[in-house]
Amino acid sequence: MQALDDQALDHVADYFRALAEPLRLKLLNALRGGPLNVSELTAIVGSSQANVSTHLGVLAKAGLVSRQSRGTSVFYEIGDERTYQLCDLVCGQITDRLLVQVQGMTRPRN
């Protein structure tokens, strides 16, 4: 983060707030395979249609997903593939940290 002004930092914080909800991360992960509609996403993440729609709205507002109308359905897809790079980086760091913790718990104590 180079010299960002307060307004830019607010946008960055909004972006991360949109990612700070497990269901939204599930939705983004489900979209890795390509565009899906709300019914398909509801079945994949195991949540109500209203809840999924609400969270998709937050993701769309943050620019993380885009909407595309196809007939009577609206399909959602990832807004920027770099989002997955960010998620993979964070997940990798968390995995590494958890492995270190597990290894520390399984070491024989003298």
Describe the structure.
This protein has helices spanning 6-19, 22-30, 38-45, 49-61, 82-106, and strands at residues 36-37, 65-70, 73-78. The protein has 110 residues and is of the alpha+beta class. 63% of the residues lie in helices and 13% in strands. The chain has a three-stranded antiparallel sheet. The mean pLDDT is 91. 13% of the residues are buried. It has a domain at 6-79: Arc Repressor Mutant, subunit A (Orthogonal Bundle), CATH 1.10.10.
Descriptive labels:
alpha+beta, Arc Repressor Mutant, subunit A, 110 residues, 13% strand, single chain, 3-stranded antiparallel β-sheet
Gist?
Helices cover 63% and strands 13% of the residues. It has 110 residues and is α+β, with helices and mostly antiparallel strands. The chain has a 3-stranded antiparallel β-sheet with strand order 1-3-2.
Strand order of the largest sheet: 1-3-2
| CATH homologous superfamily annotation of the domain at 6-79 | Winged helix-like DNA-binding domain superfamily/Winged helix DNA-binding domain
Shape estimate? globular
Q: Kindly report the oligomeric state of this protein.
A: single chain
What is the CATH first-level class name of the domain at 6-79?
Answer: Mainly Alpha
Order of secondary-structure elements: HHEHHEEH
Q: Note the total helix count.
A: 5
What Rg, in angstroms, do the CA atoms define? 18 Å
Helix % is 55-70%
CATH topology of the domain at 6-79: Arc Repressor Mutant, subunit A
The fraction of residues in strands falls at 5-15%
Give the helix/strand class.
Answer: alpha+beta
